[in-house]
Backbone:
């Protein structure tokens, strides 16, 4: 049920980044890894800071967050390191989804 989407214009996309991101999210949110979904969308047409600087826009959705501040720091560190993006060009949107709006395998979670 945690859904992490990373939009970036970075050229650095390591094949293992999705697995590493999924493990980071599962551990931080204390959720089973089997429920974590990670998607990386590489779009060279994205602009940051008014031009062609490398950046990332992250959508982090989950049913509840124990500590958004800590997760924001961990995700920022992760993206800065893995995608070699300037820290100030990493933007995160947190969405706390009501369980009644989330379904896995056809069953609503709330």
Residues:
């Amino acid at each position: 049920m945690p859904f992490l989407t990373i939009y970036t214009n970075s050229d650095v996309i390591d094949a293992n980044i999705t697995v590493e991101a999924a493990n980071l999210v599962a551990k931080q949110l204390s959720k089973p890894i089997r429920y974590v979904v990670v998607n990386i969308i590489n779009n060279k047409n994205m602009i940051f800071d008014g031009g062609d600087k490398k950046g990332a826009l992250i959508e982090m959705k989950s049913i509840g967050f124990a500590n958004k501040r800590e997760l924001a720091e961990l995700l920022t560190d992760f993206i800065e390191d893995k995608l070699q993006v300037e820290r100030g060009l990493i933007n995160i949107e947190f969405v706390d989804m009501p369980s009644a709006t989330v379904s896995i395998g056809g069953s609503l979670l709330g």
Summary: The two ends are 12 Å apart (CA to CA). The mean pLDDT is 93.
